[in-house]
Design a protein that fits this description.
The structure holds two protein chains of two kinds.
Chain A: H1 9-22, E1 31-32, H2 35-40, E2 54-58, H3 61-74, E3 78-81, E4 96-100, E5 107-110, E6 115-118, H4 124-131, E7 136-137, H5 150-156, H6 169-172, E8 173-179, E9 185-187, H7 191-200, H8 202-216, H9 219-228, H10 241-244, H11 248-256, E10 265-272, E11 274-275, E12 279-286, H12 290-300, E13 310-317, H13 319-323, E14 344-351, H14 354-370, H15 382-402, E15 408-415, H16 421-434, E16 442-445, E17 450-457, H17 464-482, H18 501-505, H19 507-520, H20 575-591, H21 595-604, H22 606-611, H23 618-622, H24 629-640, H25 643-654, H26 656-677, H27 679-692, H28 722-725, E18 740-742, H29 745-749, H30 762-772
Parallel strand pairs in A: 2-4, 3-4
Antiparallel strand pairs in A: 1-2, 5-6, 6-10, 7-11, 8-9, 8-10, 12-14, 13-14, 13-16, 15-17, 16-17
Helix pairs in contact in A: 1-3, 8-11, 8-19, 12-14, 12-16, 16-17, 20-21, 26-27
Chain B: H1 12-16, H2 20-38, E1 45-47, H3 50-58, E2 65-67, H4 68-76, E3 86-92, H5 95-99, H6 103-113, E4 114-119, H7 132-135, H8 137-143, E5 158-160, H9 163-173, E6 177-179, H10 180-187
Parallel strand pairs in B: 1-2, 3-4, 3-5, 5-6
Helix pairs in contact in B: 4-6, 6-10
The chains are: A alpha+beta, B alpha/beta.
Organism (chain B): Devosia algicola
Protein name (chain B): (Fe-S)-binding protein
InterPro entries (chain B): Cys_rich_dom
């Protein structure tokens, strides 16, 4: 049975010493070594879990250098982490985990949107929202773009549906700012920085230059590298840097792209943005068989030349995937055209104006019809386009929701030369079926030869890791060797396929990658074991267990999509972390293996887990399977309520009127206090009182005024100005529509903030409006 | 309006704090009272906090619950004349408003009330969470730490469809947040 190894006493002690070394440069609440918080930060979106010895939330370049020094001094490895949405296990460590905090949110648009400067903690979708008014976006478009951050995008050379092989970070980066393990800074767009770096790190640049010549003198290797990057590829280091550039500085910054945090720290990037054309037409086109569909895609792919006008996305969807969504309304027009073999392709055509769009759609229609498409239905209707794309995006969620509870979700991400797409899909299908993964469905960014599929597996069962191992080896053989493809097209090497890098690249290129690692990081400080790993079984070690904990959350795959929506993320815990810790507590409770640790986790969960969850459930809106972590937390609160609390609540529930009056009274008293003492003094007094009462006394915010209370039910009809009487006029007249108005308790209890305007409180304003609109 | 409003509550605060039975009891009393008022005519029930609207709508009951944003946008706005629009208005969609998908309604009213609106994009849930702003104010402070970046210089006031969220935002966003109805009433005064 697979087991997550607990932190050894030695590691824990080293973690404590790292924290001690950092205590003057990182705030105490941003340094974590306790069992709860280290467990909370133990997973990314992959199937792997490693518990860090220490977690540090860092905000500055000085802190980056300090964390490097502290980790080195205590002999612990160091992993930097942005959003933690990695799918191959590259953002987890059993050493020092340095998480990007608020200090990395720089965003600056240059030249009317032609370029954008971004800090590594900016979420991709936020950068694109800022660029939208300019009809631009950044090139990399990972499916996790509402969550994932720039630091991860650079370090994984991430990409998605429209990005192709031409618009990733490697090709659209204009400037990079990095810190190497010796603390040296390089800002590639700043002349002084370049010259200073050249002077200080001549050794490194000379050796990179030598590597460049070594590769250029090996025609076979050059050809291999060119072929590997003609399709999407995130296996190993970006060796194309060694053939695309001559200046070792350029080679260096391009090697950093896709290096998965193993070569240096990325502190800022400037992108050349790409057009985001406002005119778009979408169609979901069925074909009679995989071969005709693949031929059409191959022609649409324009010989691999990336376009920004014309067909910008073509998603292949195999028949078995279509079957899982066949009930959806948007699918209905297609159903008559599907037979048992029919795949479909989802196509976006985009253009800067309506005329060009019509031309491009006509071109695409000709190609599709020529290859035997059974029906073609392009439309510029935005709602329909969203519905069609929701079908495609829904495969991730439906695979997640359909899998048995307690299983991990494995996400595969392979690519092959596009001229062999149809055979590739058919062979993949056969491989999945042979290995007992019949439920997996295949879909993907076919223009770039990229296919995805997901499987569920329960790694707590005996034999499951061995089964996954057999499948992984067979997949490596099929993709890397038979098809000359990429075992990871977009998701990065991580721990998941580190044992298969050599099989894909061959011994010469693989040795080159080890040389690169030892040039940048000879001591193996940065994210060791990720991307390159000597352990042939690392892909089946440290696999996440998904113990059943609460039916509300059992389907969670810990992807982290919830985190940007959570008000307590990076203050205490995020929804993903609340679930991870809840699962671990459930596992410890069921196994009985460490009652002391269980008691500690249960106790420590109170404040970060329960008290600081706003129960807003916004996590559920981001979750691919709609999990309401807030509801889980409310349930845990209920479980913890003792007899006394319950009887108090019982009393309160029977006396809500008294509470309301008292609350309004309390707020009103505070209001009076503010007038007498002044806001600052009042805050000090209330904060001190709160502390004295163990946070049981509510703190009165300086913005909080006494509520208006319930408007008195009007007794006589009057058209007086409500502002004069304080309470408004009745509206229930015989000739008017009737409506029941229930001013909610917070509206009644909490008054409005003080403003310069002569505003009415909410209930009074509502009644005045009803009257004015003569309802 | 229901008589004896004092003490009437949908029960959501009890559920949220881990007292589901008490929450149900209080909520059912209110639903009963509202259903009685709504009566045979099945009058719609208007309430003015998105959180309560969401919770009430989820409770079993006969009456149709309408939240104020939707009602202001659909029913009142077309019958009002905006006489005194504001130059700019900040808008926060609280958690229940997002879950009720009432952002378009709120923004439609806000756009009618002001020349320009600025939707807070860095604040998801303000962390005030009914009364957490009173008991764990650090959560509210953390959740709203970037709010000031979302507010343009000429924007002096903002709206939220829940009064507790308005309190939480007012303290950290640098401008006061008030009810949407209060602003609509102000800008449509004859």
């Amino acid at each position: 049975m697979n087991q997550i190894s607990a932190i050894t006493p030695d590691r824990h002690a080293a973690g404590l010493r790292v924290a001690a070394r950092l205590k003057d440069i990182v705030a105490a609440n941003k340094l974590m070594t306790d069992p709860l918080m280290t467990y909370a930060w133990s997973g990314d979106a992959s199937s792997y879990r490693l518990i860090p010895a220490v977690v540090a939330i860092i905000d500055t370049e000085d802190q980056v250098r300090a964390v490097m020094q502290a980790a080195r001094a205590e002999g612990l490895p160091l992993t930097f982490r942005a959003a933690g949405t990695s799918l191959s296990g590259q953002a987890v460590t059993d050493g020092v985990l340095a998480v990007l905090g608020d200090g990395w949110r720089k965003m600056k648009i240059l030249d009317g949107g032609e370029q954008i400067v971004l800090g590594p903690a900016i979420i991709v979708a936020n950068a694109n929202a800022a660029l939208k008014p300019f009809n631009r976006k950044i090139g990399p478009d990972p499916a996790s773009q509402a969550t994932c951050k720039i630091g991860g995008v650079v370090n994984n050379n991430s990409s998605g549906m429209c990005c192709g092989v031409a618009q990733n970070t490697y090709h659209t980066m204009a400037r990079l700012r990095i810190i190497l393990t010796d603390g040296t800074l390089l800002d590639s767009g700043d002349n002084d920085s370049r010259e200073a770096f050249r002077a200080k790190r001549t050794d490194l640049l000379d050796q990179l230059h030598a590597l460049h010549h070594q590769v250029m003198n090996d025609a076979e290797l050059v050809a291999l590298i060119q072929k590997k990057y003609s399709i999407k590829n995130t296996v190993g280091y970006s060796l194309n840097a060694l053939i695309d550039f001559h200046d070792p500085l350029d080679i260096l910054i391009h090697l950093i792209v896709g290096s998965e945090g193993t070569l240096g720290f990325v502190s800022e990037v400037t992108y050349n943005t790409v057009p985001e054309h406002p005119f778009k037409s979408t169609a979901l086109v069925p074909f009679p068989d995989p071969h005709s569909c693949a031929r059409a895609i191959s022609t649409l792919a324009n010989g691999g030349v990336h376009v920004t006008t014309g067909v910008t996305a073509a998603e292949y969807i195999e028949r078995r995937a279509l079957e899982t969504v066949i009930h959806l309304p948007a699918m209905q027009p297609l159903v008559p055209f599907l037979d048992e073999n029919s795949p479909a392709v989802l196509i976006d055509v985009t253009a800067p104006d309506a005329e060009t769009l019509a031309l491009e759609v006509a071109k695409a229609e000709t190609i599709l019809a020529g290859e035997g498409a059974t029906t073609i239905d392009f439309s510029t209707d935005e709602a329909r386009s969203h519905a069609l794309w929701d079908i495609r995006k829904g495969f991730f969620a439906s695979a997640g929701a359909a899998r048995p509870k307690g299983t991990s979700m494995l996400t595969e991400d392979v690519a092959a030369p596009i001229d062999r797409l149809a055979d590739f899909v058919i062979d993949l299908r056969q491989l999945l079926d042979e290995h007992d993964y019949e439920d997996a469905v295949i879909f993907g960014h076919a223009l770039a030869g990229n296919l995805h599929f997901q499987m569920g597996d329960n790694f707590s069962l005996p034999g499951s890791a061995a089964k996954f191992d057999r499948f992984s080896k067979a997949l490596s053989d099929l993709v890397s060797i038979q098809y000359g493809g990429s075992l990871k097209a977009e998701h990065g090497t991580g721990r998941a396929i580190a044992p298969f890098v050599e099989a894909e690249w061959g011994p010469t290129a693989y040795a080159l990658m080890h040389q690169i690692k030892s040039l940048f990081d000879p001591e193996g400080l940065l994210n060791p074991g990720v991307l390159l790993n000597h352990d042939p079984d690392i892909h089946i070690k440290n696999l996440k267990l998904m113990p059943l904990a609460d039916p509300l959350v059992d389907l969670c795959i810990e992807c982290g999509f919830c985190e940007p929506a959570c008000p307590s993320h990076q203050m205490t815990l995020s929804p993903r972390q609340r679930i991870a810790v809840t699962r671990e507590r459930a596992r410890l409770r069921d196994s009985g293996e460490d009652p002391e640790l269980l008691a500690r986790l249960d106790e420590d969960f109170q404040y970060p887990g329960l008290d600081t969850c706003a129960a807003c459930n916004l996590c559920s809106l981001r979750c691919p399977v709609g999990i309401e972590t807030g509801t889980m937390i409310m349930g845990q609160r209920a479980e913890r309520r003792g007899g006394l609390a319950k009887s108090v609540a019982h009393f309160a529930a029977g006396h809500t009127g008294m509470i309301e009056t008292a609350m309004r009274g309390g707020v009103a008293l505070a209001d009076l206090g503010q007038s007498i003492l002044g806001t600052a003094a009042m805050e000090t007094v209330t904060d001190a009182t709160r502390k004295a009462t163990g946070r049981r006394l509510p703190r009165i915010s300086p913005q909080l005024d006494a509520g208006p209370g319930a408007p008195k039910a009007p007794t006589q009809i009057s058209r007086e100005d409500p502002r004069a009487t304080g309470f408004p006029v009745p509206i229930a007249r015989q000739d008017r529509k009737k409506i029941v108005y229930f001013p909610a308790c917070p509206t009644r209890m909490f008054g409005a903030a003080k403003t310069d305007l002569d505003l009415l409180a909410a209930p009074q304003a509502m009644l005045a409006l009803l009257d004015r609109a003569w309802i | 309006m229901p008589d004896h409003l004092n003490g009437r509550c949908c029960g959501q605060p009890f559920v949220s704090k881990g007292f589901p039975q008490e929450g149900e009891r209080v909520g059912n009393q209110l639903v009963k009272a509202l259903s009685n008022l709504s009566g045979e005519d099945a009058l719609p029930v208007l309430t003015d906090a998105s959180t309560c609207a969401k919770h009430l709508a989820d409770l079993p009951g006969t009456a149709t619950i309408v939240d104020s944003a939707q009602f202001l946008a659909d029913t009142l706005l077309p019958r009002l004349t905006i006489t005194n629009p504001l130059p700019a208005l900040a808008v926060h969609h609280n958690c229940s408003a997002q879950r009720l998908k009432e952002q378009p309604a709120t923004e439609a009213v806000a756009r009618a009330c002001a020349t320009a609106i600025a939707v807070l994009s860095s604040v998801t849930c303000c962390g005030y969470a009914g009364d957490k702003g009173l008991f764990t104010p650090e959560l509210n402070k953390h959740a709203t730490r970037f709010a000031k970046n979302d507010i343009p210089p000429d924007c002096r006031i903002g709206i939220s469809t829940v009064s507790t969220c308005a309190s939480g935002l007012s303290e950290h966003a640098g401008i006061p947040f008030v009810a949407l109805a209060s602003i609509l009433e102000y800008v449509s005064r004859p």
